[in-house]
C-alpha cells in the first residue's frame, strides 16, 4: 500500500542523523547555534526551518496514527508540505555547517601562520647562531647556549603544532584542500617575517651576545684564586657552565656579607627532611593526620607533592594503571643523567623500556633498588647517601626476612613503593641542589670581583646609556631636596628611607632598585610588624608597671621574652581577621606577663591591655605613632652608616652592656680584629640607638631589618651613583636653573 511504502522511500533519502539534528536545533537552539543564534541570519533561518520541519513531521505522525478512512488522502496532502520543509531545512543546515567549517578553517589557518612564523624564525636563528659560534672562541663556554635552548624548543613545538593542524585539516576539508590552506598560511608567515624584520632582530640579538662574550673574555683573561691556599684556580668558563647564575643570583651574592658567604656556600650541607628516611616516610604516610596551625612554605610544598603522589597511588589501586608510576621512573632516569651529562656510557643503564617493563609492585621495587644503589654508591655525597643506604636496607628486609612486614608501617606494598618513589625523587633534587651550590662556590670569586661592573653592563643593556628611560628613578630623585654642595650621597640615602621605604603614596619602583623590589617589600613588612610588636609590649610593661631592664638580668628570661615576641610576630603575619587577631595577641601578652613577669593581671589591667591592643592594631595609638616616627630616624642612621676606622675607635669599641638583652653574635668583642667587621660595628651602633628609642623587645629584629636596608642602598650607590644618580640630579639642577 501507499502508506507502507512511503516511510521506506523517506528513510532512503533522509538519514536519522538529519532528523536528529533538526530536533536538536529546534529544542536546544542556544546549545547548538551558540552565540550566533541572535546575530547570524543563517542561524536564525535554520532555527525557523527546524521548527517548521519538526512541526509538520509531528502533524504527519498524528495523521498516520489516526484510524480515519481518509487517512491516505490526508497523508498525501501533507507530503508536499513535509518535502518543502525538509528541503528548506537541509539547505539551511548545509549552508550553516559550511559557514561553521569555513570559520574553523580560518582560525586553524591563523594558528598555522603563527606556528610557521615561529618555525621559520627558529630555523634561521639557529643557523645563524651556528655560524657565529664558529667565529667565537669557545674556550670560555658556549655564549649561545640559552639562545640554542630557546629556539630549539620553539622549533620543535611549532613543527609539532603544524603537523597537528595539517592532520586536522585533512580530516575536515580533505587532503588537497588542507595542503592548499597550509601553503597559504606559510606564504603569509613568510611575508610577515620579512615585513616585521623578525629574522633581522633575532640576528641582532645573537650579534649582541657575541660582542658581550668577547668583551667578557677580554676583561676576564686572568684566572681567580678560590681557595685560601691559592692552589686551585677557576676561570670564567665556570660561570658560563652554571645555567642558574643570572643577574638575580649575582645580586644576591653581592648583597651577602663576606663573613657569612663562605659559611652559606662552604659550610655544612643544608638539612632536608629526606636526610632521614624514617622522618620522610613518617611525614609522607601521616601528612593528612597532623594538621598544624602554622604552615611553613616547606610544609606546603610537601603537601602539594603528597597530593600528586596520592593521585598516582589512587590510579594504581583503583584502575591498576601504572602510567603515573612509569612517568615518575622516567623522570628519575632523566634527573640521574643530568647529574652526569658527559658520561654517555652510563646513560643507557636506565631506559624508558625498563620503566615500561614494570607490571607489578615487585617489578617497580626491584628497579627502585637498582636506582638507589647507583645513587648511594656514585651520585650522592657521603652525607646525603646515608639515608638512601638506610632505605636500601629496609627494602632488603622486606624482600628477604619478612615479606609480610611492610617497612615504615605502610599499609601495603603499593603504598610503600609510591612513598619510595617520592623519597628517591626528593634525594635526586637534593643532588642537583648540592651540585648547583658547588658550582656557585667556584664562581663566587668571579662575582665578587666583577659583580658591580656586571650589574652596570646589564643595566645599560636594559635601559640604555642616556638615562632617558629611567622615569621612575627621575621621579624618585625629584622628591628629594638635592643640593649642589656635593652632599647628595647622604640626601639620596635619606631619600631612600623617606621617599621609598616609608612613602605614604604609591610610587613606581626606581629602575636602579628593580632587583631589590622583593627585598624592599620584605623590609617594609618586617618593619611594620616590629613597630607593632614594640608598641604592644611597651603597653604591657606600662600597664603592669614592669621594668624591662630589670627583667633582662636573667638569660632564661631573655629566651622566654624572645619566644613570646616571636609568637606575637607570627600572629601579626598570619593575616587573621581583626577580632581573632586582637584576641590571640592579648592572650599571648597575658601569658607573657604571667610566665616572664610572674604577674597575674587584674580585671582592669586586662581591660586596659585589650583597649591598648585594639588601638595599636587599628593604627590609632599615640605610642605607635611615636615609634613610627622614631623608626624612620633609626633607618636614616642605618642607611647613612659609615664604618669607623679601627684606629680611631679607642675605647668606643667596648662590648655592649647586656642590659638590652641583645645576644652578641659572631666573633667575641674582645678581639680588636673583630671590629673590622662592618656588620659588628653596624649592629653595635644601631642596637644602642634602637634601645634608647624604645625598641627594647624587638631590637634584634629591627637591627637586622635596618642592616638589610643599609646593604640595599649602599650597593645601589656603589653601582649607580656616578653613572646614573648624579647625572640625573645634575640634569635636574640645570633644568631648574634654566627655568
Task: Explain this structure.
The structure is a single chain. The chain is an all-alpha fold. The chain contains 30 helices and 2 strands. The radius of gyration is 37 Å and the shape is extended.
Secondary structure layout plus pairing:
Blueprint: H1 2-13, H2 16-27, H3 29-33, H4 41-65, H5 71-135, H6 145-173, H7 175-195, H8 198-219, E1 224-225, E2 233-234, H9 237-241, H10 247-255, H11 258-266, H12 277-285, H13 297-319, H14 323-339, H15 344-347, H16 352-356, H17 361-379, H18 382-400, H19 413-463, H20 471-478, H21 488-501, H22 517-543, H23 548-551, H24 555-573, H25 578-595, H26 603-618, H27 622-639, H28 646-649, H29 678-692, H30 699-738
Antiparallel strand pairs: 1-2
Helix pairs in contact: 2-4, 4-5, 5-6, 5-7, 5-8, 6-7, 10-19, 13-19, 14-17, 14-19, 17-18, 17-19, 20-30, 21-27, 21-30, 22-24, 22-26, 22-27, 22-30, 24-25, 25-26, 27-29, 27-30, 29-30
What is the tally of beta strands?
Answer: 2
- Measured by DSSP, the beta-strand proportion falls in under 5%
Nearest-angstrom radius of gyration?
37 Å
Number of helices: 30
Helix percent reads over 70%
Multimeric organization: single chain
Largest sheet: 2 strands, antiparallel
Q: Distance between the terminal alpha carbons, to the nearest Å? A: 106 Å
Structural class: mainly alpha
Query: Per the principal axes of the C-alpha atoms, what is the gross shape?
Result: extended
Could you tell me the mean pLDDT? 78
Amino acid at each position: 500500500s501507499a502508506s507502507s511504502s512511503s516511510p521506506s522511500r523517506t528513510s532512503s533519502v533522509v538519514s536519522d542523523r538529519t532528523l536528529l539534528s533538526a530536533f536538536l536545533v529546534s529544542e536546544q537552539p542556544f546549545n547548538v547555534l551558540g552565540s550566533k543564534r541572535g546575530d547570524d541570519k543563517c542561524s536564525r533561518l535554520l532555527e525557523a526551518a527546524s521548527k517548521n520541519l519538526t512541526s509538520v513531521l509531528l502533524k504527519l505522525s498524528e495523521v498516520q496514527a489516526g484510524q480515519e478512512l481518509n487517512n491516505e488522502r490526508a497523508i498525501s496532502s501533507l507530503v508536499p508540505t513535509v518535502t518543502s520543509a525538509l528541503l528548506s531545512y537541509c539547505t539551511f543546515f548545509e549552508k550553516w555547517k559550511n559557514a561553521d567549517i569555513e570559520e574553523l578553517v580560518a582560525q586553524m589557518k591563523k594558528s598555522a601562520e603563527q606556528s610557521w612564523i615561529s618555525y621559520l624564525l627558529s630555523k634561521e636563528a639557529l643557523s645563524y647562531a651556528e655560524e657565529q659560534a664558529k667565529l667565537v672562541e669557545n674556550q670560555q663556554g658556549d655564549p649561545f647556549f640559552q639562545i640554542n635552548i630557546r629556539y630549539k624548543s620553539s622549533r620543535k613545538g611549532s613543527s609539532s603544532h603544524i603537523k597537528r593542524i595539517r592532520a586536522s585539516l585533512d580530516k575536515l576539508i580533505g587532503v588537497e584542500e588542507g595542503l592548499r590552506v597550509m601553503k597559504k598560511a606559510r606564504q603569509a608567515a613568510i611575508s610577515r617575517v620579512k615585513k616585521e624584520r623578525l629574522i633581522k632582530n633575532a640576528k641582532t640579538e645573537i650579534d649582541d651576545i657575541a660582542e658581550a662574550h668577547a668583551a667578557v673574555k677580554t676583561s676576564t683573561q686572568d684566572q681567580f684564586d678560590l681557595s685560601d691556599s691559592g692552589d686551585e684556580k677557576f676561570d670564567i668558563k665556570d660561570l658560563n657552565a652554571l645555567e642558574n647564575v643570572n643577574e638575580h643570583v649575582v645580586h644576591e651574592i653581592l648583597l651577602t656579607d663576606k663573613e657569612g658567604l663562605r659559611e652559606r656556600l662552604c659550610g655544612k650541607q643544608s638539612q632536608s627532611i629526606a636526610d632521614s628516611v624514617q622522618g620522610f616516610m613518617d611525614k609522607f604516610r601521616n601528612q593528612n593526620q597532623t594538621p598544624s596551625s602554622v604552615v611553613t612554605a616547606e610544609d606546603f610544598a610537601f603537601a602539594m607533592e603528597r597530593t600528586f603522589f596520592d593521585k598516582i597511588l589512587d590510579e594504581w589501586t583503583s584502575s591498576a594503571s601504572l602510567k603515573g608510576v612509569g612517568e615518575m621512573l622516567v623522570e628519575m632516569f632523566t634527573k640521574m643523567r643530568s647529574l652526569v651529562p658527559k658520561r654517555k656510557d652510563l646513560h643507557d643503564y636506565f631506559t624508558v623500556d625498563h620503566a615500561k617493563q614494570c607490571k607489578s609492585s615487585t617489578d617497580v621495587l626491584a628497579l627502585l633498588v637498582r636506582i638507589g644503589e647507583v645513587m648511594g654508591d656514585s651520585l650522592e655525597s657521603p652525607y646525603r647517601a646515608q639515608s638512601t643506604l638506610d632505605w636500601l636496607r629496609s627494602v632488603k628486609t622486606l624482600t628477604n626476612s619478612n615479606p609480610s612486614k611492610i617497612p615504615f608501617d605502610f599499609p601495603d606494598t603499593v603504598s610503600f613503593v609510591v612513598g619510595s618513589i617520592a623519597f628517591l625523587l626528593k634525594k635526586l633534587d637534593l643532588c642537583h641542589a648540592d651540585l648547583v651550590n658547588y658550582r656557585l662556590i667556584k664562581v663566587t670569586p668571579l662575582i665578587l670581583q666583577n659583580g658591580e661592573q656586571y650589574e652596570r653592563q646589564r643595566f645599560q643593556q636594559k635601559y640604555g646609556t642616556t638615562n632617558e628611560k629611567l622615569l621612575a628613578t627621575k621621579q624618585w630623585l625629584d622628591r628629594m631636596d638635592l643640593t649642589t654642595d656635593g652632599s647628595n650621597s647622604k640626601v639620596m640615602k635619606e631619600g631612600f628611607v623617606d621617599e621609598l621605604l616609608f612613602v605614604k603614596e604609591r610610587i613606581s619602583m626606581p629602575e636602579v632598585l628593580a632587583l631589590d623590589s622583593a627585598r624592599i617589600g620584605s623590609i617594609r613588612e618586617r618593619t611594620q610588624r616590629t613597630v607593632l610588636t614594640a608598641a604592644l609590649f611597651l603597653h604591657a610593661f606600662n600597664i603592669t608597671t614592669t621594668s624591662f631592664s630589670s627583667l633582662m638580668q636573667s638569660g632564661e628570661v631573655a629566651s622566654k621574652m624572645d619566644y613570646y615576641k616571636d609568637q606575637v610576630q607570627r600572629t601579626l603575619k598570619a593575616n587573621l581577621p581583626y577580632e581573632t587577631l586582637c584576641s590571640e595577641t592579648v592572650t599571648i601578652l597575658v601569658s607573657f606577663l604571667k610566665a616572664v613577669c610572674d604577674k597575674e593581671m587584674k580585671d582592669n589591667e586586662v581591660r586596659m591591655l585589650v583597649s591598648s591592643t585594639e588601638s595599636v592594631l587599628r593604627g590609632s595609638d599615640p605610642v605607635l605613632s611615636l615609634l613610627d616616627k622614631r623608626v624612620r630616624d633609626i633607618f636614616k642612621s642605618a642607611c647613612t652608616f659609615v664604618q669607623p676606622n679601627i684606629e680611631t675607635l679607642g675605647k668606643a669599641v667596648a662590648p655592649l652592656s647586656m642590659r638590652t638583652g641583645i645576644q652578641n653574635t659572631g666573633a667575641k668583642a674582645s678581639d680588636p680584629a673583630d671590629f673590622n667587621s662592618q656588620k659588628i660595628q653596624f649592629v653595635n651602633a644601631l642596637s644602642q640607638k634602637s634601645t634608647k628609642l624604645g625598641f627594647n623587645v624587638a631590637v634584634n629584629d629591627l637591627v637586622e631589618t635596618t642592616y638589610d636596608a643599609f646593604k640595599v642602598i649602599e650597593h645601589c650607590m656603589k653601582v649607580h651613583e656616578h653613572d646614573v644618580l648624579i647625572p640625573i640630579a645634575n640634569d635636574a639642577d640645570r633644568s631648574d636653573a634654566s627655568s
